[in-house]
Amino acid sequence: MRDSLQTLSRSLLGPVGAIVAVMACGFLLVLAVSDEPVLAYRDLLFANFDSRSNFALFVNRMTPLLLIGLGVVFSFRAGVFNVGGEGQLYLGAIAATATALAFPHAPGPVLIGLSLIAGIAAGAAWGWIPGILKVRLAVNEVVTTLMLNFVALLLTEYLVINGMRDTTAYGAVSYVLAEQAWLPDIPGLPGATIGAVIALLLAPLAWVALFRTEWGANLRAAGANIRFAEAVGVRAARQVVIAMLISGGLSGLAGAFYVLGIGHRFEQNFSPGFGLIGMTVALLARVHPIGVVATAAFYALILNGAGYMQIDADVPRSLVNLLAGFLVLFMTARFRRGQAPA
Amino acid sequence: MSASMQASQFLASVLEQTTPLLLAALAAMITTRANILNVAVEGMMLVAAFTAIAVGEASGSASLALISAIGASAMMSLIFGFVSIVMKADFIVAGLGLNILAAGGTLFVLEQVYQDPGGLRPEVFPDLWRVPSGALSWFPIVGPAFERQSVIVFLALIAVPVCSFVLYRMPIGYALRAVGEDEPAAIAAGVHAARMKLLAVLASGLLAGLAGAQLSMDRLHFFLPDMTSGRGFIGLAATLFGGGLPWATAGAAFLFGAFGALGDRLQTFQAPPQFVLMAPYIAAVLGLILSRVRAAARSRPARIGGRAT
Known about the structure:
heterodimer; A: mainly alpha; 13 helices; globular; B: mainly alpha; ABC transporter involved in vitamin B12 uptake, BtuC; 12 helices; 72% helix; 0% strand
């Protein structure tokens, strides 16, 4: 236990430094462009807690980031550089939507269960492709996942236009799901999807699976050195594929949660780059499942806070995108020095 | 309209669609040969596209706009090079970070300076040098296709043999490829590996700058947030499909450009536009799979235990 606490604190030190440095640079920028820099930064960091509805929006923003981040942790720990979170997210979302729309009269729990399973399965299938290509043919997974992201975006656009399109709405938007398919809100926090609670529970589960089971040890062994792992009898290639199934499945679940809990329909471009942000969430947490909770919360905080900052202090919300870019550059500059695999 | 006119019109639109892809592909190719998978082309292009419009509007000079665009993209490439080569960051993460930075930065300037997150549309904008109309009409079909094309199109076409020459006929190209193929061996042979990689990244910045400038200032004369819309990645796909070879990469870029031009006309064929747009990405994945299958077949006798890693 002491050992794992040490790992945790070590994995906290670098990211916190990067965050502080970037937020300090951001403050200088706000000083230059705004008359009310203090108000702007207060909004950026704390406006999420001003009201219950703000907090609910924050929770909803965090959920997909956390799930995708956890998925990325599994794949990175198995040595797969999965940049395909976005595509897996969209596949999960469209599969959940299609399932929920296909059985409009099924009872709620059945419908929700089926839709979630469909979302997980579709995301996992999309993650399986680069996984199997990597272990069988040594095809570079960065390229395949990147390319499959674009294929997924176009494929889901095609599917929603040809078959599920709500013609009364503008753009590539599906019909609204039957109300019994909607996920319940968190009790006492209207508007916040219960999916967030499940995502939060999955984080310690992921930690136990990765760091306290033989299965997890095998997975990490495959990630550290696949040849060595095979040589000592670990079925490493299989572990890699399983890691990609889990990784894609979690991203797919994020898509399903978004559709069932937040959007209640599939919308083309519903994701403001959750996949890419989810990957940076995992990297910032030094690929640690518990750390991912904190970094996902941080990203959700500033992504939503930027909106309030723009309204109150007239600072462009894209400041956050700018900072997010700097944050990635800052932390990656130290990433190789850590002991986390990439 | 006569068939030959239609053919040259189609060829002209292929040229226009191909130019940014070709330049992006060459940008990715140069770094690929130095063993850097360059996902940052997208971000470099975006910054160049924005700079071209901003400087062109402010100065009224097309050449100044073009040079500034290339300069801005080169600056981005140097940031990328500094973080990934000097600071030894993972270059994929750094590249994706640079893309986020480019998208956020251009949007921030749009909102802060131009007060319009929707884009930057100058009312008047200086035009690039173009081939005068009628100048090439003596050459059937191909000639008219090149009329009214901008100087960037020609630069892109010239860039292919130039890249090929530099990579295969000049010592600097040998050194660059040596670093890409076996870095320790190259270092042992006295090649300054980090300098070579930085040079490759800078070259990719210059090419990506041209690509971005063409996108915004050649025909459209405006900038939209995220207007590169994945063209940097298609360029990367073309490079991978072409196996990192200059002429094959150029061929792949032309193929994808032709797909794009065809996609504009495919309404007549009733083909879903999404599938046409998917083609480059699927082609890149298939190209990679094929090249790995070939490699696996070649190395079979030498393999022990069955699985290549």
